[in-house]
Amino acid sequence: MMMKTPWRRKSRSFQLQLQGAIGTIQSPFLFLFTNYCHYSTSTLEDARFLTNNFKSASFTRLDDAIASFNHVIHKHPLPSRVPFNRFLSALVKMKQYHTVISMSKTIELVGISHDVYSLNILINCFCRSHLVDFGFSVFGKMLKFGLEPTTVTFNTFINGLCMESKIDKAVEFFDDMVARGYQPDVYTYNVIVNGMCKFGKTNVAIGLLKGMADRGCEPDVVTYGAIIDALCKDELVGEALELFSQMRNKRISPDVITYTSLIHGVCKLGQKNQALALMNEMVEQDILPNVYTFNVLIDALCKDGMVSEAQNTFNIMIQRGVEPNVVTYTSLIDGLCISDHFKEALALLKEMVGWNISPDVFTFNILIDTLCKKGLVSNAQNIIKIMIQRGVEPDVVNYNSLMDGYCLCKQIDKARKLFDLMVTNEIADIFSYSILINGYCKCKMIDDAKDIFVKMSHKGLVPDVVTYSTLIEGMFQAGRPQTAQELFKNMCSHGQQPNIVTFSIMINGLCSQGNLDEALTLLKKMEESQLKPNLVTYCILINGMCKAGKINDAKELFSSLFENGLQPNVHIYSAIMKGLCREGLIEEAYKIFRDMEKGGCLPNNWCYNIIIQGFLKHEDLGKASELINEMVDKGFSADATTTELVVHLLYLQGYDYNFTFLTIKVRESLDFYRCWLDEMSLEL
């Protein structure tokens, strides 16, 4: 059958490239001579063993295969092409692609003609070695010899093109194959469907699936499995479950891979009960969950804080004879660290090492990061030592965690020393710089922070939104609002889009400086850039308005939260109540205090103290007494300001019974109230 011209002709330069590639892999003469010299004389003398080994292709070691090949290739007469094909196929199964390419050239040189099977083997080796173009050169040779390509030939090329991420060329090749009358088999479809799914063309893959039956080829579990997996990864779990149902209606039995994909999909959506139901269903169908299935479920449970459930799943896994791997243990260790069960996490690390399962860099990352966040930097250093002893090279993430830990513990000199070491070894990244800048800002060493920021640019690293936001906040806290604003402008002019955190920092800084109008202007810019203010932003603005005496604006902004479908948190309630109390609007503040609980936001210690102080300042001692009782009954305590107000009023009222009782309640809620009594020389 005649094929397209591009398949038939290759340039002379391409042929030379092909020869060069084969020569680079290993020249036939050098291949034979080198391996002949390295093989023991005693083994080569056993001619019968070598011949039988060649014919049966039952070797498991490459050296045995090479010895057999070297023996047979020198025999007279030579074997036919068929045993050579069987021999080379066995080597392909061992993934010795370069060896097969070199041996194929040797077989050709000794005069044994190629057939379609030998050329298919050679094409497959080139494709598996990511040398598809050389495979097409062999394809040209196949046509030149008058050999008819088979479906295997086309499948091999489609697979090779997909492996090289040339999905469009693979589809083009597939369409050309069909147009020329070749019938794709289910393997062909599976390769092309899998390639499409991997490159985000799931809809095209679904279209191909629907057209398979019309072309006389029924999809199998692999076809459906590839699409179901892609849909689950795209969080289109509903569509995946629909396809799963369609698959079962066609009496195509799902396998462990299909179920694992679905379990992963429903877990990503937080549907743990459905995941467990799918797990039970597959067991009922006599489809045994494998380590990947258990890993998906354990990881999802750990990420949701359901560590005890994850541990139970782990125990079931062991009981079923499924051996956990490094991913299983790493997920559990992560879950235990998240839930503050660090000792158990370390015990699990020892257990996995005891079972000869080596922790990888991700396992150590979790432990080091957890220790550093808890301020246990010396323990983190010990983990890094263990890591190195076990032959696991620490990466930039490990060092960044350690540096962050030093900054958290105010050990800024150690953080700088580690940073300098990272820079010297050229492993410091943008996060390394941002961490140190943040550390300097927290220690109020703002000039050092700015110096690191400048050095960052000199190293060719572009500061990101986190770096800018950190330094801007540091400048405001250091009382340098002008520098902070200049940094913000610089950030925008350099193409870094401020995020909601950056805007909130800027608005907070401006409000703290009393520049409320500028803060409101920035709020408008924020909204114009399609960023919606969050509760933090609203809290900052309400607090700023209250401090500026613009209580009506604050009330209006507070009301707009409900209109926009937002539920104020305890910080926003505290801010508006404090502002209302400051303006003498105690009844409005009290109404909001009572409304917050109705709206599902429970008042905390801070809220109680704000409203009690409001009533005490207005000498509404009955209401204050009622609220203090309520506060104490709920387990909250009075702060120093509340206590001072009570004592002051008691002093002014001259030991009234009600005030004495009120003071006792405050005393119950605050141990250091005795100090106030001693200072006032009062006795109860």
Strand content: under 5%
| Radius of gyration based on Cα positions | 37 Å
Residue share in helix: over 70%
What structural class results from the helix and strand content? mainly alpha
**Average of per-residue pLDDT values:** 85
Overall, the morphology is elongated
Residue stretches low in confidence (pLDDT < 50, at least 5 long) are 1-44, 670-684
Kindly state the number of beta strands: 0
Distance between the termini: 111 Å
Textual characterization of the structure:
With 684 residues, the protein is mainly α. Among the domains are: 1-149, no CATH class; 604-684, no CATH class. It has 41 helices and no strands. The longest helix has 14 residues, at 12-25. Pfam families: PPR (PF01535), PPR_1 (PF12854), PPR_2 (PF13041). This is Pentacotripeptide-repeat region of PRORP domain-containing protein. PPR repeats lie at residues 115-149, 150-184, 185-219, 220-254, 255-289, 290-324, 325-359, 360-394, 395-425, 429-463, 464-498, 499-533, 534-568, 569-603, 604-638. Belongs to the PPR family. P subfamily. Keywords: Repeat.
Chain-wise SSE layout:
Blueprint: H1 5-8, H2 12-25, H3 28-38, H4 41-45, H5 47-56, H6 62-72, H7 81-93, H8 97-109, H9 116-128, H10 132-144, H11 151-163, H12 167-179, H13 186-198, H14 202-212, H15 221-233, H16 237-249, H17 256-268, H18 272-284, H19 291-303, H20 307-319, H21 326-338, H22 342-354, H23 361-373, H24 377-389, H25 396-408, H26 412-424, H27 430-442, H28 446-458, H29 465-477, H30 481-493, H31 500-512, H32 516-528, H33 535-547, H34 551-563, H35 570-582, H36 586-598, H37 605-617, H38 621-633, H39 640-653, H40 657-669, H41 673-680
Helix pairs in contact: 5-6, 7-8, 7-9, 8-9, 9-10, 9-11, 10-11, 11-12, 11-13, 12-13, 13-14, 13-15, 14-15, 15-16, 15-17, 16-17, 17-18, 17-19, 18-19, 19-20, 19-21, 20-21, 21-22, 21-23, 23-24, 23-25, 24-25, 25-26, 25-27, 26-27, 27-28, 27-29, 28-29, 29-30, 29-31, 31-32, 31-33, 33-34, 33-35, 34-35, ...
Protein name: Pentacotripeptide-repeat region of PRORP domain-containing protein
Keywords: Repeat
Family: Belongs to the PPR family. P subfamily.
